[in-house]
Amino acid sequence: MPSPVISATGLWTPPHSITNEELVASYNAWAENWNRENEAEIKSGLMEPKPSSSVEFIEKASGIKARYVVDKDGVLDPDIMAPRIGERPNEQISILAEMAVHAARDALKRAGRDPKDVDAVICAASNMQRAYPAMAIEIQEALGIEGFAFDMNVACSSATFGIQTAADFVRSGNARSVLVVNPEICSGHLNFTDRDSHFIFGDVATAVLVEDVAMAPKGHWKILGTKLKTQFSNNIRNNFGFLNRAAPEGVGAPDKLFVQEGRKVFKEVVPMVAEMITAHSAELGIPASELKRMWLHQANANMNRLISSRVLGHEASEAESPTVLDTYANTSSAGSIIAFHKHSADFAAGDKGLICSFGAGYSAGTVFVEKAG
Side-chain half-sphere of 88: how many Cα atoms within 13 Å? Predict the structure, then answer.
C-alpha cells in the first residue's frame, strides 16, 4: 500500500510590508476624519465616535507587529482603507493563481520534482478569487501539470484538510504526487476601519507537496496521522466581500467583510483544539514529550500560548511553538505552513512534530509528522 509523506514545502511572500505604526497612523487619520464629518450626530448621541487604535493595543491583543500585503497604498490611504488590486483580463493569469504558482515552484524545486511528475493540484484556501473555473485548474495549467485539480475551502484549516485529502489520494492509489497550494489575499476581506480587527490579516502563498514515499526525496517527512474536525459557529464569519465589492470606492459594505466575536472564539476554540491534539496524539501513541515542535495556526499569540501549554503541560518555548505572527500576521490557511516551512530545518531523523490549524467553521486539522533520514 502506498505511504504518503510530505516531500517539500514552498513559500511566496509579497514585496510590501505594513508595520503596526503605519497601520495605526492610517486608521487614526481615518477615524479622526470620520468623527469630524459626523460631529453633530455624535454630539446628539445618534452615533458613537470611532475610537483610536495604538501599537500597544495591537501587540497586546495579538502579538502581531507587521504584515505583508499585495497592495500597500490602498490600505494606508485614509480615503480608501482597502487594497486596490487591478482587475486582470480573462486571458491573463489571475493574481491568486500567480501567487500560488510562485509558492508551488519553490516547493517543486526543493523536492527536485518536475511539474510533469505531479498528478493533482488542490487549491486549499480561505479567500478564493472566483467561483469557477477552479483556481486549482488555472494553477495546474500554468505549471504544466496533467491529471486533475480542484478547489477546497475550510477557512483557516484549509491547508491541513488539503494535506489529509492529498494523503488519502496517495494511499488509495489515485495519485502518487499531489501539490497542495494555499494562496491567501486576506487583506481583501478585512475591514480596515474596524479598530478591533483592522490589524489581523496579511497576504501570502504556501505550497505542500504530498507524495508516495517510493518517489519522495531524501529528508522527507513521514505523515504519522491526520485528523479533521468541524463544528458550526457564526462567531467568525465572512459574507464574501473579497475583490468584488458592491462599493467600488472606499471600504465597501461592512457586512460583506470579515467579522468575529473574538472573546467567544478564544473561549471556545482553545479547549476544542487542545483536546483534539491530546486525543489524536494518544490514538497515535505519541506522548507530548516526544513532540519537538508544534507548528500552530498563526492567528493569535495568546491562543497559541494557551493551546501549547495545555498540550505540553508547561509554557512552550519559542523552539517548541514558533511564531511568524510578528512579521506575517494571520495568513489564514497558510499560517501553520509558514511556521513549518521556516522552523523545521533543525530536525534530525526520528524527530516528531505537529502541524495544526484551526479557524472559522469552526474547523481544525492535525497532521503529526516525523523527519525521515
Answer: 12
Residue-level pLDDT at 258: 74
Residue 292: exposed, middle, or buried by beta-carbon count in 10 A (0-12, 13-18, 19+)? middle
CA distance 287 to 150: 36
The pLDDT of residue 272? 92
Q: How far apart are CA 188 and CA 243, in angstroms?
A: 6
**Run of H or E residues at 149:** strand 148-152
Cβ count near 271 (within 10 Å): 12
- Rounded Cα gap, residues 70 and 76, in angstroms: 12
Q: Which residue has the higher pLDDT, 44 or 263?
A: 44
Can you tell me the distance from the alpha carbon of 357 to that of 32, in angstroms, rounded to the nearest whole number?
Answer: 37
pTM (predicted TM-score): 0.93
Q: Are 11 and 106 in contact (CB under 8 A)?
A: yes
Distance of alpha carbon 23 from the chain centroid: 20
Report the run of H or E that residue 270 belongs to, with start and end: helix 262-284
User: Phi and psi at residue 245, in whole multiples of 5°?
Assistant: -100, 155
Q: Annotated active-site positions, please?
A: 156
Give CA separation, 192 vs 26, 56, 186, in Å.
Answer: 9, 17, 12
